[in-house]
């Protein structure tokens, strides 16, 4: 089956996978979605005999149909190599009635490595396939993890530049240090005096600014995205859901066809949407448990059918989930409306204009496999402490949100279905919050003293990603206001012109 991609807002023609990856964001601010859902063409038992690279190929070939086998396998081999400190790439740990899928064994110790290790290779291959000679400028907003993973992936990749915006006071100190110490002649990191939604809105505005695009074209440059709005980010994430299921099968924890629940800590909705796509492939997914922190806009949406961002933005100990505008939810809205671009566009316009929209009962029925839950800051800290004391296993704050939500869900529902909790970051990335939870009080020590203590507590060696930033010099110290983001992009790219 040849899979093409269309715009969730109905603008423009259908495009190939490589064209969608190159462009990143579709016309008018829409997102690219597949015109049909492919199905796994290998049995689950066959997939269980493959390693991560093999499973990744079998999944990605179904979506990226204009890539040759040689091209796609080449991208996969370059991506999932010695950068990962686990031979399995995505190992699973069992603790207290659940399986934790550890997606933090890449070079930046967060799950974004799983897709951002391969995106540069998919993108540069796409450029060659489509005779794209313009320099590709990766423009992205981050709530903490995408930024570093994208910087690491695109660092010194020929024919590319990367500019990352992050909320200046909205990420952990370790996340910030990972970004601002980034090397590479083609990398730029800029703090914004605002929150993640401000950064994301500013980036989307630049993607749809025709004057800016024209000025860049005159300089031989074109934008693309590393956020999960890019289908080249989203599809590689589908692979690890299939891989997780087949590991349980290989270890005889389940039989082929048995249902499995997945619990996903959720902010921008990309990670759990990848699970939805895995289910559409034919993976026996029962419940997709959508775990939110105190910014529970998604919990309220799935509970009421109304998406309402008119609320206070809360800074939490799980900053990568501190998001009110969940970009990837648009893809689910489109699909649940029967792939109706007009119905989707109407709601996206309402969100932009009024900050709120409501879905129909029929659309909610299409989303019935999503189960919402949320954890407070107190719940999150308690989960870290209690799981550590019971099992010795240490969670980061985001995974603790998911674990807490699952514990409550299991107790209230009585659902004993085998369950995988998606572990999105190493506890070392949020060491202060983790140690404060375990010790039950404020920790005034400097960051690396806390990390040393965490290493002893968890009985785990400090990851290379942390070791690297202990003495690395700060290379990026620019901070701008929200309305100065375009000015900074023009300055970095040396593209003159008047901002919109």
Topology:
Blueprint: E1 5-7, H1 17-23, E2 32-34, H2 44-48, H3 52-63, H4 69-79, E3 92-95, E4 98-102, H5 113-116, H6 119-129, E5 135-141, H7 145-154, E6 160-167, H8 173-180, E7 187-192, H9 196-207, H10 210-218, E8 221-224, H11 231-250, E9 260-265, H12 270-281, E10 285-292, H13 297-304, E11 306-308, H14 329-336, H15 341-354, E12 356-358, H16 361-366, E13 370-374, H17 377-391, H18 397-413, E14 419-423, H19 431-439, H20 447-458, H21 464-469, E15 478-480, H22 485-493
Parallel strand pairs: 4-14, 5-6, 5-8, 6-7, 7-15, 9-10, 9-14, 10-13
Antiparallel strand pairs: 1-2, 3-4, 11-12
Span between termini: 43 Å
Major sheet size, sense and barrel closure: 6 strands, mixed
| Rg calculated over all Cα atoms | 21 Å
Class by alpha and beta content: alpha/beta
Please tell me the overall pLDDT. Answer: 96
Largest sheet: spatial strand order = 3-4-14-9-10-13
Helix content: 40-55%
Strand content: 5-15%
The coarse overall form would be globular
* Number of H/I helices: 22
CATH architectural type of one domain: 3-Layer(aba) Sandwich
> How many E-type strands?
15
What CATH calls the topology of one domain is: Rossmann fold
């Amino acid at each position: 089956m040849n899979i093409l991609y269309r715009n969730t807002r109905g603008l423009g023609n259908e495009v190939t996978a490589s064209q969608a990856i190159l462009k990143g964001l579709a016309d008018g601010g829409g997102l690219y979605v597949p015109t049909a859902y492919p199905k796994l063409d290998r049995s689950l038992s066959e997939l269980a005999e493959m390693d991560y690279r093999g499973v990744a190929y079998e999944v990605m070939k179904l979506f990226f149909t204009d890539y040759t086998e040689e091209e796609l396998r080449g991208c996969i081999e370059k991506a999932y190599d010695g950068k990962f400190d686990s031979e399995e790439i995505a190992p699973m740990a069992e603790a207290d009635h659940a399986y934790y899928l550890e997606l933090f064994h890449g070079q930046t110790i967060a799950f974004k490595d799983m897709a951002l290790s391969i995106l540069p290779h998919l993108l540069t291959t796409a450029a060659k396939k489509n005779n794209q000679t313009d320099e590709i400028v990766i423009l992205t907003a981050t709530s903490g993890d995408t930024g570093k993973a994208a910087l690491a992936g695109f660092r010194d990749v020929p024919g590319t530049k990367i500019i990352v915006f992050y909320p200046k006071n909205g990420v952990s100190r370790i996340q910030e240090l990972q970004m601002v110490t980034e090397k590479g002649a083609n990398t730029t990191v800029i703090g914004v005096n605002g929150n993640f939604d401000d950064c994301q809105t500013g980036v989307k505005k630049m993607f749809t600014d025709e004057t800016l695009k024209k000025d860049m074209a005159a300089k031989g440059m074109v934008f693309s995205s590393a956020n999960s709005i890019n289908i080249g980010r989203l599809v590689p994430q589908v692979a690890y859901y299939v891989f997780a299921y087949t590991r349980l099968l290989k270890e005889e924890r389940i039989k082929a066809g048995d249902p499995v629940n997945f619990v996903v800590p959720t902010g921008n909705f990309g990670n759990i949407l990848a699970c939805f796509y895995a289910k559409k492939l034919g993976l026996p997914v029962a419940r997709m448990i959508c775990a939110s922190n105190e910014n529970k806009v998604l919990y309220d949406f799935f509970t009421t059918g109304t998406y309402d961002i008119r609320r206070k933005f809360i800074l939490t100990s799980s900053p990568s989930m501190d998001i009110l505008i969940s970009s990837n939810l648009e893809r689910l809205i489109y699909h649940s409306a029967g792939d109706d671009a007009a119905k989707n566009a109407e709601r996206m316009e309402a969100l932009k204009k009024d900050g709120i929209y409501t879905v129909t009962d029929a659309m909610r029925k299409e989303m019935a496999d999503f189960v919402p839950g949320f954890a407070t800051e107190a719940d999150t800290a308690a989960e870290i402490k209690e799981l550590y004391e019971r099992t010795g296993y240490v969670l980061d704050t985001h995974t603790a949100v998911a674990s807490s939500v699952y514990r409550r869900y299991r107790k209230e529902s009585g659902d004993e279905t085998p369950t995988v909790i998606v572990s999105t970051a190493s506890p070392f990335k949020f060491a202060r919050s983790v140690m404060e939870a375990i010790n039950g009080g404020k920790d005034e020590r400097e960051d690396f003293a806390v990390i040393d203590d965490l290493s002893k507590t968890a009985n785990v060696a400090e990851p290379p990603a942390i070791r690297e930033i202990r003495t690395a010099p700060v290379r990026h110290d620019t901070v701008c206001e929200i309305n100065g983001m375009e000015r900074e992009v023009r300055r970095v790219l040396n593209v003159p012109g008047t901002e919109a």
